[in-house]
Amino acid sequence: MYYSATKALEQRTLESLRLEVAKHREATDRFLLERTRGLNLPALTQQGALKRVFRSLQDVVPCFVDLGIINGQGRHLAYEGPYQLLSKNYKDAKWFKAVMEHGFYISDVFSGFRKVPPP
Predict the structure, then answer these.
(1) Are residues 59 and 90 in the same domain?
(2) Which of 51, 54, 86, 115 suits a disulfide with 67, CB 3.0-4.6 Å?
(3) Domain that holds residue 5
(4) What is the DSSP letter of 107?
């Protein structure tokens, strides 16, 4: 009886978490889609433009830590956030190669140049 109750509770909790994550993913995707429509890449690389977009993102989805625009050679064109990433090159990163090949990449959490979260 205890085992069955525990399993049922675990399944309900996991399903609730899955639904919550799906809702957040949909809201984030919708927000980003709305914000990217009409965005002009050269305009975002101008001083202060990316900062305004980043703050707007944080207002709606406060979990964003930073935001960068990376060119096809893996270099930042613009960056807003607490890390010193403007000089970093991502050309050899697995995620960057996948984005260049497929247009997107969904990753697990990894430290990268930020070293957050710690390995």
Answers:
(1) yes
(2) 54
(3) 1-37
(4) -
Q: Distance between CA 13 and CA 20 in Å, rounded?
A: 11
Q: Do residue 14 and residue 57 come from a single domain?
A: no
Residues 99 and 47 in one domain: yes
Q: How much of the chain is in helix, strand and coil states, percent to nearest 5? A: 55, 10, 40
pLDDT one-digit tens code per residue, 93-108: 999 999 899 887 877 7
Provide the token pair at 8. 């049922």
CB atoms within 10 A of CB 107: 10
What ranges in the chain are assigned the alpha helix state H?
2-36, 41-44, 49-60, 94-102
pTM, 2 dp: 0.60
Give the other-Cβ count within 10 Å of 70's Cβ.
19
